[in-house]
Amino acid sequence: MEHTTSTATAEYAAQIERWRRQMDEKLRAPDGWLTLIGLFWLAPGPNAIGADPASAIVLPAGKAPERAGQIDFDGLVATLRPLPGVPFTVNGQPAAEGPLRSDADAPPDVVGLGDIALHVIKRGERYGVRVRDGEHPARRLFGGRQWFAIQPEYCVPATFVAYDPPRPRPITNILGDTNDELCPGYVRFELGGQQLELEASALPGGELEFVFRDGTSGKTTYPASRFLVAPQPRDGQTVLDFNKAYSPPCAFTDFATCPLPRPQNRLALAIAAGERYAPAEEHL
């Protein structure tokens, strides 16, 4: 029995280590969060694109012409207008003038120019353009996320209580923008001798996502929040593995717009498991 238990613990630890390596790989990916180099909010009318610092959407010098084109914005629709001879693409195809789908209608249209990619995002009532550089040095210099030691006792069963129908919830992001979201329900679980609850967000594949704070936030973990994903509930049951709690993209870039935890997801209990926080420069 002791050998079986130790083997299971070793297998569990190996599985968590693999998952953590995959999380680093996602950050370093050509379209990962480490490639972000800018976020520019659209103003009504023409928004110039180019390497000219006076542009509304500034691209890196040496990777784009001073003037590359513009995005016309009418308050709801962003329309790309490339200048002649500038080899923009949209979703991998040569670009023509036309409207751009934002991430409110996922997936967004991706405008490419060499190593540079940009797409339109919607946050609250605002629309912006997020810019990436696939060869950003941060990808190469990133030293990896920081983690607490793996502790199996932080992997706990949870009961999912569904809302019928799902309930609307305002979700505010780190910039103060608010979007409404339908909340599918909440989970009840026990941790540290306490009965706790967390409200969920629904992911496309049926998994549940939790944005939460706890007693470690701002001390040994990222101040704003951490994220946790749980398997799709089966017969009202799922598992919360806080060894997989991780920092949001805002911990690694100034150009993310991470959601903040709703009030009921702010726990007093210190959950010293999952990802620790180190300022961005300490990851390099």
Explain what this protein looks like in three dimensions.
The protein has two helices and 18 strands. It has helices at residues 2-28, 137-141, and strands at residues 36-41, 45-50, 57-58, 69-73, 78-82, 89-90, 93-94, 98-100, 111-113, 116-123, 126-133, 155-172, 178-191, 194-199, 201-202, 208-212, 226-230, 237-241. Strand 12 (155-172) and strand 13 form a beta hairpin. The protein is globular, with a radius of gyration of 21 Å. It starts with a helix and ends in a 43-residue tail after the last strand.
Key terms for this structure?
284 residues, 18 strands, 2 helices, five-stranded mixed sheet, globular, mainly beta, six-stranded antiparallel sheet, 11% helix
Secondary structure elements and pairings:
Elements: H1 2-28, E1 36-41, E2 45-50, E3 57-58, E4 69-73, E5 78-82, E6 89-90, E7 93-94, E8 98-100, E9 111-113, E10 116-123, E11 126-133, H2 137-141, E12 155-172, E13 178-191, E14 194-199, E15 201-202, E16 208-212, E17 226-230, E18 237-241
Parallel strand pairs: 2-3
Antiparallel strand pairs: 1-11, 2-4, 4-5, 5-8, 6-7, 6-9, 9-10, 10-11, 12-13, 12-18, 13-14, 15-16, 16-17
